[in-house]
Amino acid sequence: MRQLWRRLRATPAVSGYLLLLLGIIVNILVQGPGFFSSSNFNSLLAVNAPLVLAAIAQTVVVLTGGIDLSIGSNMTLVNTLAIALANKGHWPVGASWTVALVAATLVGIGNGLMVAYLRIPPLLATFASMSVVGGVALWVWPKPGGMVPSALYTAYGSSFLGIPVAGWIIVAMGLLWLVVSRQRVGIYLRAVGGRERSAYASGINTAGVKFFAYTFSGCITGVAGLCLTALTASGDPKIGLLFGLNSIAAVILGGCSLSGGWGSVGGSIAGALFLGLINNIVFFLFRNFVNNIPGLTSLASFYQQLLANLIVILGLASAALTQRGETGVGGRRRRRGGTQHA
């Protein structure tokens, strides 16, 4: 058991796994036996799949030492393009969704060109991209509305072989990352994020690796935007605003270092699911206990959001402390152990 704990502590995802376990335990205590129902699992995965995929996309970029603030705007662009082409242009749904996915990948390519070859700092490049892409999304579909064929959103919320379809999508993207991470470019991602100069001196095409990271991230973001469209079954030019910052929060909760080279996709998935469980916990906590207190009913939604945000802050603090304990002062453990874990 002690050896297992040592191995667990040596992984960057330990904070994400522990927070997810804590979230599940508290959720069971608050929600009761209903937590284990298939409909509850279906709902949890369907609602949180877009954030989980956004966290995967963010992790790939963060591993190289970058950051992508445009993920939320990119998801909004996918949503509005898919809806506008199908509803205004009367395109087949498959064609409109494919174009939306390609558009998201092109946004990733643009980010990669700015960061890798024009050498614009990732924060500035993706902030500019966020503004431009958000404006394009607003131009494409200015008001909430439109619709998705019922067969699509019904299929998204259903199960296949006893597992929610949203869960299959997460597994597919996780396996895709697993394949990429075993390739040379996947290993180079961490090398570039850990010590870019050493990676360059070793003959690694650091610009090409960064370009790949942002392109791959854009593609995964496109899938996240399509999941969000299937979930909401409509278009909204502001639908993805929170996903950019929430994906960064999920990555930190999952144990990734924003300085690059240290982290795992598994931890980020756990961090995103923890964020989703928090909303579930607060909802059932207020429904079962707080709403019975006179005077608080009218302010329930405000206090729900306040409590959820406080829990997120505590989670971020605990993740930061765990990461500090793992790396030591100045990252001594990381230097001794070389680069990172998958």
The parts where pLDDT drops under 50 for at least 5 residues are 329-342
Specify the structural class. mainly alpha
Arrangement of strands in the largest sheet = 1-2
Mean pLDDT over the full residue set: 85
Strand proportion, as a percent range, falls in: under 5%
Rg over alpha carbons: 20 Å
Order of helices and strands: HHHHHHHEEHHHHHHHH
The best one-word shape is globular
Number of H/I helices: 15
Helix content: over 70%
- The beta-strand count equals 2
Cα distance spanning the termini: 22 Å
The main pleated sheet reads as: 2 strands, antiparallel
Question: Which key phrases capture this entry?
Answer:
342 residues; 15 helices; two-stranded antiparallel sheet; globular; mainly alpha
Question: Can you walk me through this structure?
Answer:
The chain has a two-stranded antiparallel ribbon with strand order 1-2. Helix 2 runs parallel beside helix 13, helix 3 packs across helix 13 and helix 4 packs across helix 11. It has 15 helices and 2 strands. The C terminus is likely disordered. By secondary structure, the chain is an all-alpha fold.
Task: Please summarize what this structure is.
With 342 residues, this protein is mainly alpha-helical. The protein is built from 15 helices and two strands.
